[in-house]
Sequence to fold (470 residues):
Amino acid sequence: MKRLVVPTGILGVLIAIGWLLRPGPGHVPTEYEAPSLHDFDFHPIYTFHFGDSEFFDLVINKPMLQLIIAAIVILAFFIPISRKLTIIPQKWQFGVEYIYDFVRSGIARTTIGHGYEKHVPFLMGIFILVLMNNWFGEFFYFMFPTFSNIGYTMGVVLVVWVAYIGAGLGEHGLKYFRVQLLPAGVPLWLAPLVMPLEFMSAFITRPLTLTVRLFGNMFAGHLGVLVFVVGGGWLVSESTSLLYNVAGFGSFALSLLIIAIELFIGFMQAYLFTLLSANYIASSVSHGH
Amino acid sequence: MPIAWCPLEINLGPLAPHNIFEVAIGLVTAGIIWFGFAKFISPGFEKMYQERSRQIEGGIELAERAQAEADALRNQYAAQLADANGEANAIRDQAKAQAAAIVEQARDQAGRESTRMLEQAKAQIETEREIVSSQLRGEVGTLATALASKIVGESLEDDDRARRAIDRFLAQLATQPAVKG
Fold:
């Protein structure tokens, strides 16, 4: 009996979340509606109003719950495991170590080099968070990539921004801004030209491109999946022509391929996001190049 | 999706967050994950990696120590072997030298012995010769006296005179170099 308690509890929680995430009444279209921006705008489970504008509403909806669930799952998965690690790994530990080492050696050490250890927690956390939320786009039950809502992407990128500026300040103190804005070897008379450019590139373009890259990939990918799945669904249930139904099945079949590609892109983007973050940290902590 | 708050009235479409709390929740979640990894998860992993590399290094060190010990032992054996060889050579050389010395000694002794024997023989011969010569002298004297008395007659039978005459004769004989023998 005891063995049944945990699975039943998890199932109950999932059902409760599923009920919370149910589409609102306005989300059941009666005629074909091409996938659009509305598919990224979720029915609020609850809305807290903090101002006159919609912009200051705290809307609890599916993407937000996804992000929180991801955080809980990640911490609940890794924290117990990090205490049970043994020097000679057991079977399960190989897998976890593979993921951890992928970021630790594959990204942090090769990019940052000396002193990379203290940046591993940040990179590992960012990688696993972005990866999981990207894969939510193809994961049953969730089927939505959290970062196709740009707000969440911005939030995570702000953390990256803080992290690499913080790493620079930690390494060089206030001299970091001089190191970053005026690279070693640039003649002083070029400073008026170089410094604004470096400022733009280091503190504005980096977070902007990080945000738009991740968001754009997830947004476009999810839209692509929707086109095939929603369109296929309508075609299959269309009764005017058999050809439509056949095309609908074709569309479903193709959607599997698209989803497979999306899984790859989700991983790719998480990897790229982490790699670029590591790159920015490396450029912050580097001593004269 | 009109954005009422935007002062420039530009519709950014999906590039604008729905509300500020999306950004805030994203930031807080990422921050919590970062904190969780920094505080709870990575120390465990780093400790494990450190311990592992320490053990591997320990193993390597142990192997190196064993190797060094083996090398030392081998060197010791080689040195001992070299010593033994040297000793054997030394003993052989010594034995040779000893043998040579013994032979030399024996030769010396034999030489001395033979010299001694020769001298002894010579001395004996000399003694015997002297004895024979003195006997002979007496006998020859007696014979000669007897012969002379037979020839000259009884007048010469006075012993004292006869001996003196014989002695004189023999001394004369001894001084003659040609008769030496």
Notes: Helices of chain B lie at 20-152, 159-175. The mean pLDDT of chain B is 84.
